[in-house]
Amino acid sequence: MAPSTVSYGTLPHDVQGKIEKFELHVEEQQVRDFKQLVRLSPVAKECYENRGEGHNGLGVTRAWMLEAKAYWESEFDWRKQEEYINSFPHYKADIVDDDGRIYSIHFAALFSEKKSAIPTTRLHGWPASFQEFLPVLDLLRKKYSPQDLPYHIIVPSLPGYTLSSPPPLDRPWKIADSARIMHKLMLNLGFGDGGYVVQGGDIGAAVGRTMAATYPECKALHLNYCFMFPPDDASASELSDTEKKGLERFDAFNATGNAYGREHGTRPATIGHVLSASPVALLAWIGEKYLEWSDAASRLPLSTILAEVSLYWFTGCMPTSIYPYEEDFLQVPHPKGYFHAQAHLFVDKPLGYSYFPRELAPMPRSWVGRTGRLCWFRGHEEGGHFPALERPGEMLADLEDFVGEVWE
């Protein structure tokens, strides 16, 4: 079992509203039903498109699905994963929105006892969860004691994802709505006067950018993802060979890799039903992304992928986690460069960017610099779309170096 972090669980003295400690426990009957569903769910018969070993560019293969299903059924231990999750402090906060509605927002955290600790929140995307950042929290609790931890690290579940309340039933939910709720969470934790830093990837990068561009209390933004299209004045001469290869990966994603997003955005009800009917179907849909979007040099363990899919299944969050794509594909027209509310919002605050070459959309440094006051950059030789899982040491070093440079 991972070491206890109860000593990192002291809330700041000036918290507001209802914030309670939380421990994850999936009921035993639900776990048994899940195992039965995995066992009874068939895998598609062999065909040309799903043949081969590994990933062949036409979707997740039958060989991988059979291997993953067998491991899920007989070896994967949800209780062990649950124990690891609960070794970190967790909370649920009641956040009162501007219209008076209350959202229960889950977050994991490491709180420092230092008065000068810097409040930092890390925001996930799809198909990830707060679990994505647990390896970084693990490194932090091994590196620092509660007395000398330089940061308060807050890792929420976005609205609609896993352990947080879903969006309302009577209206669409947008990136700006999630940004508002995440901002209110940081204020409720007492970080309004001194401010806070946001770090994000994927949809979390969009939420974080919106927070940084909207709320003065958000003092700085660090991204490992900055989806954007070529600026009008972009020139090939400003690109390195690594960046040119990265844009080839981006082009491939636009050509053959984004059909899932269009389905999420244009038929969210249908895909929500499909992926709520079978854990094996959910595994195929989400597992493909972990295989395709991560770096082969830091291939994620099967147990890590299954932990994320299992949490999505147990919380039933798939239908309520895909709302950002409606904004991308249905609510048009958009400003030039719009996707997940990212590049069109200029951040006139310290902006940091970590470049991982196997990201699905690795944007050149000069392009990212056009979207904000870029003052910190680091390029990596390895790593993909899930760097907090793939390269947690590098991700932590980047966050510490950025915060240390920009925080006054």
UniProtKB/TrEMBL annotation:
Database matches in SUPFAM superfamilies: alpha/beta-Hydrolases
Active site residues according to the UniProt entry: 202 (nucleophile), 325 (proton donor), 385 (proton acceptor)
Biological processes annotated in GO: epoxide metabolic process
Keywords, in A-Z order: Hydrolase
InterPro entries: AB_hydrolase_fold, Epox_hydrolase-like, Epoxide_hydro_N, Epoxide_hydrolase
Domain Epoxide hydrolase N-terminal: from-to ranges: 19-133
Superkingdom assignment: Eukaryota
One Pfam family recorded for the sequence: EHN
One example GO MF annotation: epoxide hydrolase activity
Record family assignment: Belongs to the peptidase S33 family.
Alphabetical list of PANTHER family matching this protein: EPOXIDE HYDROLASE 1-RELATED, HYDROLASE, PUTATIVE (AFU_ORTHOLOGUE AFUA_3G08960)-RELATED
Protein name per the record: Epoxide hydrolase 1
Protein species of origin: Trematosphaeria pertusa
Source species taxonomy: Eukaryota, Fungi, Dikarya, Ascomycota, Pezizomycotina
